[in-house]
UniProtKB/TrEMBL annotation:
This is Heterokaryon incompatibility domain-containing protein. WD repeats lie at residues 14-54, 55-96, 98-139. It comes from the Eukaryota. The keyword Repeat applies. Keywords: Repeat, WD repeat. InterPro entries: HET, TPR-like_helical_dom_sf, WD40/YVTN_repeat-like_dom_sf, WD40_repeat_CS, WD40_repeat_dom_sf, WD40_rpt. Residues 1114-1126 have a biased composition (Polar residues). Residues 1108-1129 are annotated as: Disordered. It holds the Pfam family HET.
């Protein structure tokens, strides 16, 4: 029904090709050239349908054709990328096949002067060829990317338009790119220029199956897209007059014909199979149709007469002129043209024109016969039959046969359930109104019911333009459906209002407003603004019911009602404010802004409009404007004359206060973040200032500023949450490789735009993963620290790195040596586990995710934290020797220092000093970073700090070479690889047995004196690389050589109060078997306060009953300090502890061999094995009384 019947019925079918026709072009002399998948090109006579020439030299299916404007050349391109040139008259081949492209030819076009042929292909190339030599023109081909769809010269020949993923416009002479724009959402398939070159039309693909119109002076889109197609638009052509456009979508199975003036579809040509191409012939039928629609019947007659003069056997033109004569009530000529059409060729359109003309002359019976015969030419197509019967009913009605026409319509609607019943209702409504025009309008409501029902029977929008949908009725009978619509619905509005159905009345009223044109608007205004009270009554009812709906949070209904009241033109600022509130409830931010601005316009002194504007702008994320509106709102509240309004000001915090709170939160958040960070959105490296600026430019910052509340706690928590979320940072842990990216490589550059090789590729992949995970900031140690020119930054970075990893939102571990799809166990074998810096990068973060060499997840584990994966943590435990619980819950600091050193002992670093520097964070230590100081000094400073701060002497328990820094410290961290000396401990039964013996054989006072002296012994400390070590000293009396089975150098050592022992060392230079020792050496037991068995201080505070039983000795550097007065204790308990101490001192212990130096200091003699010593007789307390603090170099 949406197309004229003659256009949808083929005038002629040309048969001869063996496969589908993929291209076609029409000559003005009514010849047609076609190209087919059967590899042939054919010339046809359009009038007779006879094939004039068959050209068969293509080796692939012919995909595209072009004809030069002088009609002398035909170019054909095929699926193999070859192009052939044929003579336009004879069809003879003019050149050898041209291998133009590597893939199929997707488009061809001759320049307007015929000197150049443009070809493009799916290989992404557009090439220009001379039509004189058929060689490619000098200059580089135009590279357009894959999937080039179409190339077209502008009418002047100045430009070449190329459709790919974008629309590119080139100067045809220089091949310089003049303009480039996106065009359609996904891909651009087809192009056509208007005849004057002022517009370019483009056709899209299945994602955006529209036609878009572009101004060729600005390359901006003109108007809305032309909609109607549902799949890609393969080809578009424009008729010679420039008034019509035809477009093809093969998957839809039809061709659309568009009117350029209003961009509307005027016809649809249906095909039995998907059409690939379309071309215009030179005729006047369609132009005459448009003239009929516009009411210019004289022009229509003139155009059709010209067609008849050109071709006296064109039966279609005679039939169309018969329709025009019938419109002009020239019935005799109408009958004559109809008879002539049928005499030339009997057809559906001919008998329809005869039936209409005979009815006009009053020959009803003959007219019926003509319509009956017409039904023989419908091919039993139900749509065509349905339309034919509608035409018959209208024709009978116009001839005065009203009852017969009405009966036919009813039977047609009832008997054709699959037909267009809406068409029946519209025709019935029109005829009913025509019949009742002279009456008092009593049946207008009934007619309106029919018309409304007709509109609602469609799934289309209620604003559907009936006049254009049923355009055929306008062409054949000159109907003015718009005037009919207004007439019936004015009555309908009044009826609905009187029935109390005011919402339906308003909807109908608005529909009338939208659909009125200039001619009918005058009548509409006379009706709505006249003596009737329609607008006033509707306005009152809409506002009242809108208020009720708003209060009930029925926002859609409220919006409809307020909108209806506003459409009536009598709304106040209150109505706009309420509709804005309803819009806010629906989160229609932009619409709410417009209404809020209308409120301020109508009532500028009120704060309400600005309050609504602020809320809507916040929702729309237009924060700068929201803050401005909020500030004005505060001023309106301050200046309000009513005290009650002014009091509302106390509810809000001004933006400056919010800025202060945000600034404090940001500095707190960044305190534990790296100094430089990579912005994953921009790809730029940002220092602190740039980070802050990025935050201030972000929507979340402005949203915080624009967030009004008087609840300071709520605002503070919200600010903390937003700031913490924004500044979440992801850190990378990786093994440095040969081509790492450094700071100067990315400074002031966009990371994503760099050449992606080596370290750059690693950095880019890292940043993309972080960005895709929703994080704004990333950090990579190779390029985010100024290691060369800023020593202070390097110092701070190394000392803060553990804290940075601990506070990261996520740490990504990149395993460059773990290939994709690795099996379990690959992580354990990675070199990453052996590097010094990766120790803290493993234990510090709370959340860790491991990635393989290709940046895929290790083991495909998509859990948010691999530290929660038992399988992965078991691998790491096996690889590092660190208990999985310690890996997950690691605490930095001095506790368990010896064990932490053992965990680090097998790790290596590129720079020797980094062995120590990489452990600063592990122990919570901050020390100067001095590259060039050498490994022993760096490690010595670290160990010195551990002892100095904790007094923990377990770090002195090692085997290996002594350090130049201090002989009690190892030269290499590998000395901690051997676990600390573990000696067997006594059971409680053994201790009780020995306690009983001591009580019988020992003076308890001596035990108490020893306990007291050891209790007041100070902890070990360092000063100027010298270790002050509290210990129990045993004078060595004899050292002699003693060779073992493996010929290793061992020494037999005797000392006062100790059993003889053997020491393996290379540091003693003693050549005699026996040599007396006179205070040259000491064997010492480093003092360990845990032997006192004192309660833990933290537990002591919880035990109020025994709080006074313990004392905290003052710091002392010497056991020769004045005697102290012990706090009163339970004598039995202290005695027991003293005796237990003696029992423990009698057990084997790890001893240090010290050699006295000339200045009275000592040096530790390193041993290849632990030195295990034991007192001879624990009851000889005097042997244990040599308690001193020795100074060790």
């Amino acid at each position: 029904m949406s197309k004229p019947i003659p256009i949808t019925t083929p005038l002629r079918e040309l048969k001869g090709h063996e496969h589908c026709i993929m291209a076609a072009a029409v000559f003005p002399d009514k010849r047609l050239v076609t190209g087919s998948h059967d590899k042939t090109v054919r010339l046809w006579d359009l009038e007779t349908g006879v094939a004039l020439k068959k050209m068969e030299l293509h080796r692939g299916g012919v995909s595209r054709l072009a004809v030069s404007q002088d009609e002398q050349l035909i170019a054909s391109g095929d699926l193999n990328g070859e192009v052939m040139i044929w003579h336009g008259e004879t069809g003879e081949l003019l050149s050898q096949p041209i291998k133009a492209h590597t893939e199929w030819v997707s488009s061809l076009d001759f320049s307007p002067d015929g000197t150049v042929l443009a070809t493009c292909s799916n290989d992404g190339m557009t090439k220009l060829w001379s039509t004189k030599t058929w060689s490619e023109l000098q200059g580089r081909p135009i590279k357009c990317g894959g999937g080039t769809g179409c190339v077209r010269y502008s009418p002047s020949g100045e430009f070449i338009a190329i459709a790919t993923s974008s629309i590119d416009i080139y100067n045809s002479g220089t091949r310089e790119l003049v303009a480039s724009f996106k065009g359609h959402k996904s891909h651009n398939f087809s192009l056509v220029w208007t005849a004057d070159g002022t517009r370019l039309l483009t056709g899209g693909d299945g994602v955006d199956p529209t036609i878009r119109e572009w101004d060729t002076t600005t390359w901006q889109q003109v108007g809305d897209p032309w909609t109607g197609h549902s799949n890609y638009i393969n080809v578009m052509v424009i008729n010679p007059a420039g008034t019509l456009v035809a477009s093809v979508s093969p998957h839809e199975g039809h061709v659309r014909l568009w009117r350029v003036s209003d961009r509307r579809t005027v016809a649809i040509f249906k095909h039995s199979s998907g059409p690939e191409w379309v071309a215009f012939s030179v005729d006047g039928i369609m132009t005459a149709r448009i003239a009929c629609i516009d009411g210019d019947l004289s022009l229509a007659e003139e155009l059709l007469t010209q067609d008849i003069s050109t071709d006296g056997n064109n039966h279609t033109s005679y039939a169309h002129r018969s329709f025009v004569m019938a419109r002009k009530h020239d019935w005799d000529h109408a009958v004559q043209d109809a008879i002539t059409s049928i005499s030339i060729q009997p057809s559906l359109i001919g008998f329809i024109s005869k039936g209409i003309a005979l009815c006009g002359k009053g020959h009803i019976r003959d007219a019926r016969a003509a319509f009956d015969v017409a039904s023989m030419y419908t091919d039993q197509d139900s749509e065509i039959v349905h339309f034919l019967l509608l035409i018959k009913a209208i024709t009978l009605f116009n001839a005065g046969k009203h009852d017969e026409a009405s009966l036919l319509l009813k039977e047609l609607a009832a008997g054709c359930p699959n037909a267009d019943t809406r068409a029946c209702r519209i025709v019935e409504a029109y005829l009913r109104v025509q019949l009742e025009k002279a009456l008092d309008g009593a049946r207008h409501a009934e007619a309106a019911d029919h018309f409304t029902s007709a509109v609602n029977s469609s799934n289309s929008s209620p604003k559907l333009n009936i006049h254009e949908i049923y355009e055929d009725l306008v062409v054949l009978f000159g109907w003015d459906l718009k005037c009919l619509w207004l007439t019936t619905h004015q009555k309908r509005c009044n009826a609905l209002l009187q029935a109390g159905e005011f919402q339906d009345a308003v909807k109908l009223y608005r529909y009338m407003v939208d659909s009125s044109n200039k001619n009918t608007m005058v009548d509409y205004l006379d009706w709505s603004n006249g003596k009737s009270t329609f607008r006033e009554e509707c306005n009152t009812l809409c506002i009242a019911n809108g208020d009720v709906a708003l209060a009930a949070s029925e926002y859609d209904r409220a919006i409809d009602l307020y909108s209806a009241a506003i459409a009536l033109g009598s709304a106040s600022d209150v109505v706009f404010a309420n509709r804005s509130k309803a819009m806010l409830g629906k989160m229609l931010w932009e619409d709410a802004v417009l209404d809020a601005q209308k409120v301020t316009e109508l009532n500028p002194s009120s704060h309400v409009g600005y309050q609504l504007t602020h809320t809507a702008l916040r929702g729309a994320e237009r924060y700068d404007e929201a803050i401005e509106a909020f500030t004005i709102m505060l001023s309106k509240l301050d200046d309000a004359p009513e005290a009650q309004i002014r009091s509302l000001r106390q509810q809000y915090v001004c933006p400056s206060q919010a800025e202060d709170a945000i600034r404090r939160a940001v500095w707190i958040e960044l305190e534990n973040a790296p100094l430089r960070l990579l912005n994953t959105s921009t790809g730029l490296l940002c220092d602190r200032a740039a980070q802050l600026n990025s935050f201030k430019m972000s929507p979340v910052y402005n949203e915080l500023i624009a967030f009004p509340t008087k609840d300071s706690n709520l605002r503070t928590e919200r600010i903390k949450d937003v700031v913490a979320t924004y500044f979440r940072c992801v850190l990378l842990s990786h093994r440095w490789e040969e081509t790492e990216v450094l700071l100067h490589d990315i400074q002031d550059k966009v990371v994503y735009e760099l050449n992606g090789l080596g370290g750059i590729a690693k950095l880019q992949s890292f940043c993309k993963i972080v960005r895709d995970a929703g994080y704004n900031w990333a950090w990579m140690d190779t390029c985010c620290i100024d290691k060369k020119s800023n020593i202070t930054e390097l110092q701070e970075s190394i000392n803060s790195m553990f804290v940075w990893y601990r506070n990261s939102a996520l740490t990504i571990v990149y395993l460059s040596d773990v290939p994709p799809s690795s099996q379990p166990g690959a992580l354990a074998g990675s070199v990453w586990n052996e590097r010094g810096w990766t120790f803290q990068e493993l234990v510090a973060p709370q959340v860790v995710i491991f990635y393989q060499k290709d940046w895929s997840l290790y083991l495909g584990d998509r859990s948010p934290n691999h530290k929660e994966s038992p399988a992965i943590m078991k691998e790491l435990e096996d690889a590092t020797g660190i208990d999985a619980r310690a890996l997950v819950n690691f605490s930095p600091g001095m506790r368990g220092a010896r064990e932490k050193l053992q965990w680090a002992s097998k790790r290596v670093t590129t720079l020797q000093e980094d062995v120590a520097y990489s452990l600063f964070g592990i122990f919570g230590i901050t020390l100067p970073v001095i590259y060039g100081e050498k490994k022993q000094n760096a490690l010595g400073r670290l160990l010195q700090e551990i002892v100095a701060r904790s007094g923990d002497i377990t770090v002195l328990d090692w085997i290996g070479q002594p350090s130049e820094f201090n002989s009690c410290l190892p030269a290499h961290i590998t000395s901690y690889t051997t676990p600390p000396c573990a000696l067997s401990s006594l059971s409680e039964d053994d201790i009780h047995t020995q306690l009983s013996s001591l009580r019988k054989n020992l003076d308890v006072e001596l035990a108490l004196e020893l306990y007291d002296r050891l209790d007041y012994t100070s902890a070990a400390r360092f000063a100027n690389c010298r270790l002050h070590l509290p210990c129990i000293a045993f004078r060595v009396t004899e050292v002699s050589l003693s060779y073992g089975p493996s010929q290793e150098t061992r020494y037999k050592v005797k000392a006062d109060g100790l059993r003889d022992l053997l020491i393996t060392t290379k540091e003693l230079n003693i050549h005699s078997r026996t040599r007396p020792i006179k205070q040259t050496f000491l064997l010492v037991r480093p003092w360990d306060r845990s032997l006192l068995e004192l309660p833990d201080f933290a537990n002591l505070l919880d035990d109020t009953e025994s709080e006074g039983d313990y004392r905290t000795p003052p710091f002392s550097t010497s056991v020769d300090s004045p005697s102290h007065s012990p706090v009163k204790q339970d004598g039995v308990d202290l005695e027991s502890r003293a005796l237990r101490l003696l029992v423990r001192l009698g057990q084997p212990f790890g001893a240090f061999l010290l050699a006295r130096q000339r200045g009275g200091e000592y040096k530790r003699v390193a041993s290849d094995r632990n030195i295990i010593a034991q007192v001879k007789d624990v009851s000889s307390v005097q042997d244990l009384m040599d308690i001193k603090t020795v100074e060790i170099l």
